[in-house]
Amino acid sequence: MNFSSSETRGNESAVEVQDLSVRFGDFYAVNRISFTVHSGEIFGFLGANGAGKTTTIRVLCGLLRPTEGYVRVAGVSFDHGEQAVKSKVGYMSQKFTLYDDLTVEENLSFTASLRKMDTATYVRQRQELFDFISFDRPLNTIVRDLPGGTKQHVSLAAALLHDPEIIFLDEPTAGVTPASRSRFWSLIRKLAERNKTVFVTTHYMDEAEQCDRIALMREGKILALDTPDGLKRSAFPMPMLEFDPKESLSFADISKMSRHEVFLFFEPYGLRFHASVRSEEEWEKVRPFFEKTFNIRRITPSLEDVFIHTVEGKVP
Amino acid sequence: MSSFVWRRAAAVSRKEVFHILRDPYTLGAALVLPVFMVIMFGVAIEFNVKNVALAVCDSDQTQSSRRLLDTFGSSEYFLIHRVVSPHEAVTDVSAERARAALIIPPRFEKDLFAGRAAEVQMLVDGSDNSTVGPVLGYVGSIQSIASQRIAGFERPAPYELRTRFLFNPELNSRWFVIPGLTVVVMSILSILLTALTVAREWENGSMELLLSTPVEPLEIVVGKLSPYGVLGVIAVTFVYVIARTVFGIPFAGNIAVFGLGCLLFLVTYLAQGLLISVMTRKQTIAMQLAMMSGMLPSNLLSGFIFPIESMPKFFQYFTMILPARWFMRIARDTFLEGSSFFELGGSFLALSIFCVLMILVATRRFKRDLEP
Q1: Looking at CA atoms only, how far is residue B324 from chain A in angstroms?
Q2: ipTM value of the model?
């Protein structure tokens, strides 16, 4: 890959979205969202299915015409689908990656031809990408015979073949093993180190944690956008506590305690409970009472807490 | 913004060829099916009825009645077995031991010599429509021969009807069926395979990935359809070669006229397959629609087996909107009658209209679906 050109981009924004809406009939899949993605950043979209993540990506890749709003991707501005942007971005869809009945080489050379790459450039790029993803199988391996994780890597290589400035990954790790997921994420970090902009959607919290910034989406809207730490701080200004029950508790007990007025929220977390309190003083007053039933310790909130708090809105 | 790039279309074609080569079913359908169908239709299906079992009850037992029976027996159409009573003859027909029965009454020769009209009864099993027509035809011609033989040449008939069949003098049903098979084979290959291949790209989501590259919709269409066009041409060539060599069917017309008809029909059906796949986007539904709109009409309503002239009026007009009907005319007439392009002008005009119309509708719909 030719990573040198990225230096000239400086700190210009890779993606700029203002008041973007996408409407299907009466349904707003995306409802007036605005955000900016910086060059060389790993930008995450976190949200449930149907939150509008894929729709947004499809607009940014020039696959879908926005109903309203202004979009600027890799220096190309458009308010409708745009061919010019397609040569500057790479896209890896969640639904389809590679043709199963074709070989690795056939898949890649097909992509190269569609992008009008000459043979020399294609072969050079292919080799660099194979080094990048550590692919060492024969080129004529049928894709069907590749392990799921390797297929994902080759698919990433296909999306990177034309050396795009921005790469859009729509749930790239859906359905692969945890080990493959972590290998894939080390590739994503390597891309960012080389100053590629990575735009990724996911619903894995541990993946979201690795993004530079995350947008939390629900029902076509961005509810919050910040670094993982920033999100945690703004969602939980008060300290987080973990409650570990000393003995098993009945539902009635739990629901009674969770409604105690000292808590901002009180949610189950595995066999334990995560909670946040309104103020330190109030907490100190009732603490001995809770310590009879629980081992209590202070924790830093996880992104999952933030997600439940912000996206699912389970807060009084 | 839109600019057609041959290299991208070629890349799509190349990929499609790999798909075809890796899929034994597609390849089998394209190469084995035409051969199989021609051989099946050529060997197994015989509209000419031969060796019809005929139960004969000859109650007269005279020279005249034996002459009549000889005439039946010496034609190769009937296999005669004798029964003793008219009742037994009827039983044989109803028990399906015989397709027809011939009953000669006792006074047959006496009536003949007395100059009265001698009566002979013929019973034909009407439950099988396909044999009735030919059997009656044979009976008619045998009757005229027998009358002459029995009566000698003393009383020549006041007029003689001499029938000669043009273009297919022996009324060989293969000559009639196999040229029509080009229509059936092509309709299966073009419409069905096209509908499936484009629907598959929608179904597995790869269409979206194609569109994330700068490829143009028209490049996808041309790239994806051309391999199937080539398959169609290969299949028709198979049918043609087998028809000429294995079954010895003459080709009286101009091969270029026939080829032009093939191409027009092929492109029309490829476009129809494309339209179906864009409309359905699912392989299973696309397949059913392709069967309904492409294969069934070309089998049943094109005149392939059932003559259009004997259909109800409504269907006679209805078949006019089927490209298969017009191509069927072109295929048969170029094969057997040697019709020229101008003699087939009407059919070519109709086929061209469908072709242009279908391409317009299909590509417009396809582009509208793809463009963001």
Answers
A1: 34
A2: 0.78
